[in-house]
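Justification of computing resources. Each target in the renewal requires a structure prediction run like the one illustrated here; the chain below, 118 residues long, is used simply to show the kind of job we budget for.
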Amino acid sequence: MDYIRAFIVGGIICVIGQLLMDGTKLTPAHILVSFVTTGAILTALGIYEPIAKFGGTGATIPLTGFGYSLAKGAMDSVKKAGLIGAFTGGIQSTAGGVAAAVVFGYIMAVIFNPKSKK
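Resulting structure tokens:
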């Protein structure tokens, strides 16, 4: 059942992104930023936590999940370290994922021959 819930929630997020790309003049960069921001805002409002618990990785892996991780890390860190936690918590909570993306991206660039678009 976890797989089905993850598929449904992740699929809904992807459908929203596809509809934004097809129905608006927003660039993929605009959509990326809006998804991360939406995830952070929904987390701050307490709306994204139930979605993440229901959808599991279907809600935490897409871009909205990155915003969720940033906001949740900042909020948790504020409780522990005070105001300085607002600046450090989000970075600490997402550092592993960002580092993995950089390392694996580098490895793929070394293994394969990257080509620029023309």
